[in-house]
Fold this sequence. Notes:
By secondary structure, this protein is of the alpha+beta class. The chain is built from three helices and nine strands, in the order ββββββαβααββ. α1 crosses α2 and α1 crosses α3. It starts with a strand and ends with a strand. About 20% of the residues are buried.
Amino acid sequence: YQCDWSSDVCSSDLNYEVPKNINNGYQVFPDKFTITYKGVEHKIPKTTFNLLNYIYENKGRVVTRKEIYDNVWEDVIVNEQTIDVHIRKIKQRLPEVPIQVRKRIGIIWN
């Protein structure tokens, strides 16, 4: 199955390359901005995907908001709520994703 976050429509086209990362049933496809979990593929908006992928690549440690700003948004000025909005979108669509917000510290993929 393939699910596009902008439309909530799913199809059964899984014609992608081998994923970059595999962990606990998650497959991350950086070139396609998609993540699969339990056979369902989710196409994620680029910035949201970059945030999720950055947290994933640093799994097991708390990623500070400053790190996220510097590595995901780089030259764009965003406020703290921007990260929260993206995290909320991820958790709404993929509630199984093991990310936790540590208040005033950062975000961790457990």
